[in-house]
Structures are given as structure tokens and as C-alpha cells.
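Methods: example folding runs. The two proteins below were folded one after another, and each record is reproduced exactly as written to the output file, sequence line first and C-alpha cell line second.
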Amino acid sequence: MSSHQPSTRTRAAERALNRESWRIFQIMAEFVEGFEKLELIHPAVSIFGSARTLENHPWYEKTVEISRLLSECGFAVVSGGGPGIMEAANRGAQQGKSPSVGVNIQLPHEQEPNRYQDISLNFKHFFARKVMFVKYAAAYVVMPGGFGTLDELAEILTLVQTGKSRRIPVILVGTEFWRGFLDWLEQTLVAGGTIDPEDLHLIHLCDEPQRVVEEIFDFYEGRSIEPSSEEQMIQLEL
């Protein structure tokens, strides 16, 4: 029996390799579709927040207003395409004049595409989806949320900090919600030397929808909102 085991293991390994090889084409297809659909929507703002936020919650209502203002100012709004804050972002964008974009992810629960999307993409792979959020964003607006929201926030901060993405405004909305997190960054990470004090300057904190828009325009005052040639080269290496 032992003499047949290597052959059995080899066949199993070959089947696994074949599956992985075909998976590469699926990943490539997700990137190609994303690049083709999102290349034409700039400038854009990516908005993140909890999928569990209900329609009558103040966070939901504030997100609708922020997205509406951004859309009226000419920014396409990109969300994760699901319920909660994502739905509010797409809903507000449709009330304005600019495209409402949903970058959806297939999950066992929580994620059902909302109905407020002018452009809708569907992904199986989180890492391919993340590239779409970063690559075409002129700003990140981060509403209160859970692990997924923190993941996207950490992603953009890491990319900007390490020079793998151009610097864009990263705006946290909700002083009461985010203050403890920002205190922890300063009192634990900065104090421990794991990030620099200047890294905290990557983050803007505000509460009012109009102020979110002003923060973005203030950031780009005196510079183009479109990536420079050098920044475009950086974005190619995301």
C-alpha cells in the first residue's frame, strides 16, 4: 500500500496545482473588468463603514449627505456595494450628478448588493477588490465600522506611509467614535516607536458633511486632483 502513496499524493498535488492555475485566470479577469470600468470615473472618493448600520441611524443619514455633496461636486463615489454605510454612500451619490459605484464582494453572509449602484463590479477576492478602492481614489472617507473598515483604513495608511500609493486625504468621520483609536495610535504606536509622529498627519478627523468636502478641496489646493505622471507610475505598482 505504501508504494502507491507517492503516486496518489502526486495526483492530488497535480489536481491542486491545476485548480490554482485556473484561479489565476479568474483573478486576472477581476482585475481587467475593474480597470476597464473604473478608469473612466475619476475623480472618485472611496467611502467605507459598517455593513450593519441601519437606515434610520445617524451614521447612515450622515453618509447619504456626505455622498450627495461629493457627487454634486463632481466626485464619483465608490463603496463596497453592500448594505449599511455602503448602501448609504451609493444612495447619496445617486442623489447627485456623478456616478455611484459598488465594488461588491461575495461573502457567505452580510453582503448583498444594494440597489443604488450605477456601476457594479463583483469580486471573489478581497485583494483584487482592495486595489480598485485605492487605485482610482482621490480621497478616503471612513465612517464608523468594524473589522472590514479598519482593514481598509490600515491598508491605505500603510500604502501611503511606505510610498506604494500617492498621498491622498484620509478622513475619519465621527470624533466620538474614532477618538479612542487615534489616542491609541499616539499613546501606544507613536510612544512605542512603531510609527512616526508624522504618520498621524495622514489622518483628518471631522464630523460635518460639508467639512468632509472642504477637507478634500483644502488638501488639493495648489495641486492637481489628478495623479501626476510620477504618481501614475506609483499607482501602476499597487
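Second run, written to the same file directly after the first:
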Amino acid sequence: MLLVALATYNEIENLPSLVAAIRVQLPDADVLVVDDNSPDGTGRWCDEEAARSAWFSVIHRAGKLGLGSASWAAMRYAMERDYDQLITLDADWSHPPEALPRLVAAVENADVVVGSRYIRGGTIEGWPASRRLVSGVMNLATRVTLGLPVRDASTACRLYRVAMLKQLDFNELTATGYAYLEEIAWQLHRRGARFAEIPIAFTDRRAGASKVSFAEARGKAAVLTRLARQRLLRK
């Protein structure tokens, strides 16, 4: 069984069409939305979709609690309901739904499949040069300091084997913002997870406001520093 999970906050302009596109590409997959009490009606739309579609579910949270904790909630949901695989995507159309079948195909020889912007065939559309530079430098720093075997450690476009997620100790996960992506990848790598990457065309969000902020970038740097220190101590 396959579950596709989306974390949302104010994504009513993107979510309905994205969910429909996901089902076109993966008609047998279930879809879960973890919504952080969006004031724009996202949660209400999710309730309506859940009432008419057995394959759709929603988790409502009390407020804006962070992308990391939303992803942990999706992981726990997948583990508790015995899904075999979990795909995570951004809810703003940044990750192309047409890449989903290739993610599924690549998991045959991997525990984690990453939809990558930074391998041959991967592209980024709609970003200024400054943002490309910062992202590229952060990913290089992640590979060097944490030893992760992927070129794109900061993308949420991923497929996880749920059996591998069950090996995580969620008490060890502390990053609630975007840095959770590197933290989970590092914790899985420590446990022997096999990684694979497929190229994707990343496109800046179609509608709505970006959730990325200076505070998020600063928090990510702090998490990477902490993880690098832990890695050195274990060595």
C-alpha cells in the first residue's frame, strides 16, 4: 500500500488540482493531508474531499506547528496503518506529479528515493540566482559535514519504505522546520538505509506565499551544526 502525504498551511489555491494530479499518476495510492489550521479554507476543503473519497484523509492540527512535525505525523500515520511506502511532496506544485511513478519504480533497490534537483537531468525553474547559490552551497555543506550519499538533501520530494521509518527513534528528531529533511536523512543513513535519486524539474510555487524565511535558514544552519558535531563525536 502506498500513501502520498502533503503538509499544508494556506494552500487552497494549489491543493485541489494537485490532489487530482496525484491520483492521475498513482490511481491506487491513498492521499493524506496534514493541515495546520489554515485560515484560507484548506482544512474545510479537505473535510469535504474526505467525505466523498475513501482514499483521502486529513489530520487537523491546532496551529502552525512546522513542516517537520507535520511530516512526523504523516510518518506515524503510515506506520500505524501498515502502509508499505510513503511519499512526501510539497503542496505548492513545486514537485511534478508526473515524477511519482519514477519514484515508485526506483524504490525496488532502495529504502529512500529522493526527487533531486542536483543530479543530471534535474532542473530548477523560477528561482533567482541568489537562491540557487544558497541552496547549492547548503547541499554541498550537508554532503561534506554529514556524509549523506545524496546530492539533494533538502528536498521534500521523497519516497520512504515504511519499514525503514519504523527504525527511527522519533524522540531523537528535534528539527520542526525545513531542517527536518536533513535530520531524517541523516538518521536513516546512520541506520543503514539505501538511498537512490531520480531527477526532477523543480518549479517555484504556482500560487500563494512562500513559507521560507530567514529564521528558517538560520535554524537549518544550527541543526546542521548540531548533527555534524554528533557525527564527529560518534567517530
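Comment on the second run: The mean pLDDT is 88.
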